[in-house]
Design a protein that fits this description.
The protein is α/β, with parallel strands linked by helices and 378 residues long. The protein contains 12 helices and 15 strands. It is 33% helix and 20% strand. The structure holds zinc ion.
Length: 378
């Protein structure tokens, strides 16, 4: 944790506070910042507006709640001076980013811009298709998944009950627009006087789009690069053999090319300078966690018993799901690196065992970062 705090000082935050709900703040010529409310410790999501000749592009949309819709109404009639929205760009398919995509594109009859994997995953998870997770939390696939990773037999039932509470918080998946314009890595969107390069990352979600304007020195980073909290990177029952932490780490390497003076506009926390420092910090943080897991697995371990290595707090049912997904993601990357071996035992549970003969030399059990407070639901 000491290391993280030292590195945190290398980041620089040009704004002290967030815009009040229903208002916007100009970040640069043709770039405005607003927030929409969220529950829990996150409190809000940052959204951005890009000005074009005839109107505005909206980048991410907030939760699908009546309150967020009301606040958008205020923004459209007040701050935007009645000029239309010309397009909605969603960085990725999580509910706080796509919640109002349908409403806004309907209202203005404007296109939705997303990458292909994000759009189709959102369509697959939207209401009527089992909701977020595609219904896998109440399927036999979900039951097998949680059993193999060490959860008690009634965990899936507990999760189903907790899941029902999501819709009242706006965390359920909305109906998506029936068509979209595809974004791809390397695309350039010309909006107003500026070119925005699409830079795709992965790991937190399958094909997450960031927008980088080199001339303005600004990157809209969504949940791909956050300055304080760490994005959730999880394995879920829908793709139980996935290795999302590997592509997450590869994405960090790719984003290290971002010019060092870039102002990063994230979806949570405050805009910041210091993108390369932050990426190096995140890479170091995950490498530290990976090593801590290897050290724990000198004796065979089930994934559930690795949660205290990653998280300090007692976790509720949903937080446990996120935390377990993260623990499995770390284990899968270690398997890919030939550092862990996974075997299925007679009790139906996987056990992970460290197999790198060099571990004793690399291990430093007394020098790890303190476990995180709890997993973030973003
Ligand atoms: Zn997200």
């Amino acid at each position: 944790m000491a290391i993280i705090e030292a590195m945190q000082r290398e980041l620089n935050y040009p704004y002290d506070t967030h815009p009040a709900p229903g208002t916007t703040v100009e970040i640069a010529d043709g770039v405005r910042w607003l927030t929409m409310p969220m529950g829990g410790s996150l409190n809000h999501i940052n959204l951005y507006l890009l000005e074009d000749k005839g109107g505005w592009y909206v980048v991410d949309t907030g939760l699908g709640t009546p309150r967020t819709a009301e606040l958008w109404d205020e923004i459209f009639t007040g701050e935007l001076g009645g000029r239309p929205v010309q397009g909605v760009i969603c960085t990725h398919m999580h509910p706080d980013h796509i919640g109002q995509a349908g409403n806004i594109t309907e209202r203005f009859r404007c296109p939705l811009y997303m990458t292909r994997a994000e759009y189709y995953q959102a369509r697959a998870y939207s209401s009527g298709s089992g909701g977020f997770g595609g219904g896998s939390h109440s399927s036999w696939q979900g039951a097998v998944f949680y059993e193999r990773y060490g959860m008690p037999r009634d965990y899936l039932e507990q999760l189903a009950v907790a899941w029902r509470g999501r819709s009242s918080e706006g965390m359920s998946m909305p109906e998506m627009p029936l068509g979209y314009h595809r974004l791809q890595d390397g695309d350039i969107l010309s909006i107003g006087h500026h070119d925005w390069h699409v830079v795709v990352g992965s790991g937190h979600s399958p094909e997450h789009a960031c927008l980088h304007c080199k001339a303005l020195g600004i990157m809209i980073s969504g949940d791909q690069i956050l300055p304080i909290i760490t994005s959730n990177v999880s394995v879920h029952p829908t793709e139980p053999e996935a290795n999302p932490l590997q592509v997450w780490m590869e994405s960090h390497d790719k984003f290290l090319d971002t010019p060092p003076d870039t102002l990063v506009l994230p979806a949570h926390n405050l805009p910041f300078h210091g993108v390369r420092e932050r990426l190096r910090q995140l890479i170091g943080h995950h490498e530290d966690r990976l090593l801590a897991i290897e050290e724990s697995c000198v004796e065979p371990q089930v994934a559930k018993d690795l949660l205290p290595v990653l998280f300090a707090r007692e976790l509720d049912v949903r937080q446990t799901m996120m935390a377990l997904g993260e623990a499995i993601a770390h284990c899968h990357l270690l398997m890919h690196r030939n550092r862990l071996e996974r075997t299925l035992h007679e009790d139906g549970r996987y056990r992970f065992l460290s197999i790198d003969p060099d571990l004793a030399r690399r291990a430093h059990p007394d020098q790890h970062d303190a476990p995180d407070d709890r997993p973030m639901m973003v």
